[in-house]
DNA sequence: TGGGGTTAT
DNA sequence: ATAACCC
């Protein structure tokens, strides 16, 4: 019922061999957990909804990726820098007092020997992240991603198979290395709400009136967090599958002209188009996001989105036609819709997002596209996504 | 505070 | 379109 947390056994990534060996142990950990003491806590009854869920949390993931790319960094205190922040660091650096999300100034002061690598381009981290997820998916397809460095794996089926294979004497020799996952720290806004209600601890939350909490927070959130306060989290593991959106963003001190904005947008767009091309699916919506200076609001982002015209969608991923020009035009329209360029403005962030992704390879769209735009059958992106409509029969379409 | 992601409203 | 949440 509850999610079972396993402390980081290994930092993941690694070379393939290590990672695989480590992953192989996951099923054993799960089997151990359900056969031994933890069972009484995790699986109070062997009812049909009991699940064995392993939480794989990779620590200082970006730093690990950097150390794998450049082994010379392995024995040095290493920080990964984005703008003027050290977003994460390895254990060497931690020992010397560097913390996550620490200012570069403070970090250097604490640890003058700190080696910094720039981690603003997430490409390699993203690729590694999906490698880890794909590895876990070999054990069970039910893997839910949380950020780039956490995965929840539902191992119920696998554990049940293993338990059936074990003899009873082997079963009693198995030991447990997991623990019940019940620590939680509830989001910023909700925390503020709870504070206002005089709820400051897990115990406060456990004993607080359900009715009042439901009135304050809404029934959905109230019931969920109160169950969480008892360590109960029966939410299913939802397989993440391929991403639902692609975005690239850049923050900066100041952007105050349309030309400047256009240049930044073009950069973001170029990277995004590469990613979309590799993915093989096609986005049907674009969004432009900005953050304005001042307002000092913690969450002051604004966005405008629109459908991508179908003739532009068709050019996406073909790599040969100029899709930049029409896309930039669209994005600049969205830009001017948000920002009055005749008035002074000051932006500190621009982001472009592709979402509403649809497979091209399937369903009726493919058939329609084929007859309407014969050029599509000669696309050349990665090859593996090309398809031959000539072999397609009507039975393939509902 | 970065550069991402998700779901709910 | 925004707001909240996660890392």
From TrEMBL:
Residues in UmuC domain copies: 53-162
Protein's GO biological process: DNA repair; translesion synthesis
Single annotated GO MF: damaged DNA binding
Alphabetic keyword roster: DNA synthesis, Transferase
Protein name per its UniProtKB record: DNA polymerase iota
Species in which this protein is naturally found: Rhinopithecus roxellana
Name of the gene encoding the protein in the UniProt record: POLI
First-to-last residue of the parent protein present: 1 to 398 of 659
């Amino acid at each position: 019922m509850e999610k079972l947390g396993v402390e980081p056994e290994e930092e993941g990534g690694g070379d393939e061999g290590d990672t695989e060996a480590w992953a192989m142990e996951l099923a054993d950990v799960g089997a151990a957990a359900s056969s031994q003491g933890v069972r009484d806590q995790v699986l109070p009854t062997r009812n049909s909804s009991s699940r064995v869920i392993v939480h794989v949390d990779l620590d200082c993931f970006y730093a690990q990726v950097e150390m794998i790319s450049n082994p010379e960094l392995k024995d040095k205190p290493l920080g990964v820098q984005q703008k003027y922040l050290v977003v994460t660091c390895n254990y060497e650096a931690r020992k010397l007092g560097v913390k996550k999300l620490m200012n570069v100034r403070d970090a250097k002061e604490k640890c003058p020997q700190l080696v910094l690598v720039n981690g603003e381009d997430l490409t390699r981290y993203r690729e590694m992240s999906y490698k880890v997820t794909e590895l876990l998916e070999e054990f069970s397809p039910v893997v839910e991603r949380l950020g780039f460095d956490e995965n929840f794996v539902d191992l119920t089926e696998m554990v049940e198979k293993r338990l059936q294979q074990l003899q009873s004497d082997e079963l009693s020799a198995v030991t447990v290395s997991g623990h019940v996952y019940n620590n939680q720290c509830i989001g910023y806004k909700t925390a503020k709400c709870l504070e206002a209600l005089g709820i400051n601890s897990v115990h406060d939350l456990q004993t607080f009136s359900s009715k009042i909490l439901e009135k304050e927070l809404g029934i959905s959130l109230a019931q969920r967090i109160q169950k969480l306060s008892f360590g109960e989290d029966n939410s299913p593991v939802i397989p993440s599958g391929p991403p639902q959106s692609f975005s690239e963003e850049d923050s900066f001190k100041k952007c105050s002209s349309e030309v400047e904005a256009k240049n930044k947008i073009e950069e973001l767009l170029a990277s995004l188009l590469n990613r979309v091309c590799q993915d093989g699916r096609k986005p049907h919506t674009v969004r432009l996001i900005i953050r304005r200076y001042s307002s000092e609001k913690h969450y002051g982002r604004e966005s405008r989105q629109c459908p991508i015209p179908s003739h532009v969608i068709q050019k996406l991923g073909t790599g040969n036609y100029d899709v930049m020009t029409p896309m930039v035009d669209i994005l600049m329209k969205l830009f001017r819709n948000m920002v009055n360029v005749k008035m002074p403005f000051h932006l500190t962030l621009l982001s472009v997002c592709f979402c509403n992704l649809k497979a091209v390879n399937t369903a009726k769209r493919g058939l329609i596209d084929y007859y309407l735009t014969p050029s599509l059958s000669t696309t050349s992106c990665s090859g593996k996504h090309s398809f031959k409509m000539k072999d397609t029969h009507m039975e393939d379409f509902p």
